[in-house]
Amino acid sequence: MFIGGAPGSMAGGIKITTMAALLAAIRGSLRGQPEPTLFARRIPARLIGQALAVTTLAFALIVNVALLISLIEGERLGASFGAILYEVTSAFGTVGSSVGLTPRLGAVSQFLLIMMMFVGRLGPVTVALVLTERRHEERYRHPSESLRIG
Question: Residue 50 CB: number of other CB atoms within 10 A?
């Protein structure tokens, strides 16, 4: 549910192409390729960074809203965190699937799910547009440094 439809579709969640770009970057990194490729085409580092930012922000938003609903509803709801996470992910992906918690949620929690539906449909696209529109002319460049990753 987290991964939605194609870029032109009305599906919520992150797009298939976003996940494909991330998987290509992971595969390229494991193979030691300087630039990730997908279907014999290079993927610019800028797009990989945008895909990573959109995915990370979406994931963080889902987890934080699930935690917030869990804190608000507390033990009154009697549901596991996994069930709440399922509801929030379903709302973000505009899937409509439920484990039956939504009718038992309070008004604030239901409002949070409504906002997740809105953000899930428009958020990742909006974040991607905001990230692509930021083009500043660099007056200087910082020196690069090699880091040990892993």
Answer: 19
